[in-house]
Amino acid sequence: MAAELSAHHRRLAQHKRESIISAATELFLDRGYDGTSLARIAEAAAVSKSTLFKQFPTKAALFEAIVTESWQRDAGDAVARPQTGDLRAGLRSIGHRYADLIGRPGMTALFRIVIAELPRFPELGRMQFQLGKLPYFASVQHYLESEHEAGNADVPDAESAANQFLGMIANYVLWPRMLLTDWNPASPDTRYAVEQAVQTMLARYASDPSA
């Protein structure tokens, strides 16, 4: 019985956490970071102030959680590096996972919040980069380094190569959404964009581009 109650309390706490993060993201986007109070977030999330303050004592802590969870959601699937040995398959796997990640409405909202508030709150940009983008970028860089070391790719500058690959995908999937509210490419179009990015990487970096 105690174990069941404990599991129930954990589920309840997780549900409240998700409600808080969802409400905060919407309010930050609608009213701005500075114009949103923790009290207003608690009201929108239908939780008590004490519940919110227990999990997130400051707005900065709450925004940090938003960034971390946005980039690490389904982390086992989105961030895990493919096995070394098949560069084409590995790039495809990374590319489709990245397209799915940055194509979510929540990710677009996060970028819009950061960009809107950057002049007054530069620390939000640092959080977005250091807690979100950088760890994800590093996982791709390390994958390319492992393929280089295994002789499957000639990638003397894996940092630059990772930036090129992710940039090609983001340029189609994410950045138009920042300016065009109706930009929502169909799945086949996104898959095609990823495949073109993979082909470009193979032509440039694969030890055997025809493999």
Automatic annotation (TrEMBL):
<dbReference type="InterPro" id="IPR001647">
    <property type="entry name" value="HTH_TetR"/>
</dbReference>
<feature type="domain" description="HTH tetR-type">
    <location>
        <begin position="14"/>
        <end position="74"/>
    </location>
</feature>
<dbReference type="Pfam" id="PF14246">
    <property type="entry name" value="TetR_C_7"/>
</dbReference>
<keyword id="KW-0238">DNA-binding</keyword>
<dbReference type="InterPro" id="IPR009057">
    <property type="entry name" value="Homeodomain-like_sf"/>
</dbReference>
<dbReference type="Pfam" id="PF00440">
    <property type="entry name" value="TetR_N"/>
</dbReference>
<feature type="DNA-binding region" description="H-T-H motif">
    <location>
        <begin position="37"/>
        <end position="56"/>
    </location>
</feature>
<dbReference type="InterPro" id="IPR050109">
    <property type="entry name" value="HTH-type_TetR-like_transc_reg"/>
</dbReference>
<dbReference type="InterPro" id="IPR039536">
    <property type="entry name" value="TetR_C_Proteobacteria"/>
</dbReference>
<dbReference type="InterPro" id="IPR036271">
    <property type="entry name" value="Tet_transcr_reg_TetR-rel_C_sf"/>
</dbReference>
<protein>
    <submittedName>
        <fullName>TetR/AcrR family transcriptional regulator</fullName>
    </submittedName>
</protein>
